[in-house]
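ingest -> fold -> write
write: protein_1
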Amino acid sequence: MTKFLADSTVGKLVKWLRIMGYDTVVHTGAADRVLLDRGVREDRVVLSRKKELAGRQFRGILLVIDSDRVSEQIDEIIQRLRLTPRQEDFFTRCLSCNDLLGPVCRENVKDRVPPYVFKTQHVFVQCSRCGSIFWPGTHQERMTAILNRHNPTDRP
């Protein structure tokens, strides 16, 4: 599966790539050369809106994103890289730190989620790195509907 390295110019896109299950790391350094070198070293597609990066020598894959709207950015990446997001990969990564999520016993989260959530939800997943807890809900349904509009196999 394609892995990404994003700079600060595409911050909102990072969240959506992680929601789709793509391993997406944020580069926090300011030096463009360090960003590009890291992309090659970690075998990641580098994502940026900085047009000047297109002229730099680079052995890896660099996508200079044209749009400033995240929905168009998603389409742009899917089309240019010919990606086919798979619904079974959706919601498998932590939105905060990018680590994979794993199942967690419902009783173990009782004191860590709102009472209403605990009462109404039965399936929880947790990030092993940062401890964030996630559960399916209406937000997940809305996000899935949005992502399905971007999936080339679901289009007429």
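write: protein_2
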Amino acid sequence: MTTDFSAATSSQMVPVDSIDCSPGPYCMSFGYDLNPLILSIESVGLLNSPILLASENSHRMVIIAGYRRIQALKRLRLHSFPCRVFPASALDPLHCLLINLYENLSTRKLNDVEKGMVL
């Protein structure tokens, strides 16, 4: 089954204080070093925008994918940055999890703890 969510998302500058920056239900990052990512962002900028889900019952958005990028951007003291934002009604929790999983698998290998989190 192929689903195109590109029409449901918008790219926008998002203030960091409007993001729930805690590892949410879709986070699969464990035991990582932010320094290479920080160096990359300092050198060439943010290449892949984090993906967020607007919340129906909170003013803070939930991170679908890009938890480590957001942590790196916060360490760089950036107050806002481009993100892809889905409306709360656009995705169910399974699709959010799958977006995170496939985005991570397309850019890196999961460590053993992260593989266990997927299961």
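write: annotation protein_2
The radius of gyration is 14 Å.
The chain has one domain: 15-118.
pipeline exit 0
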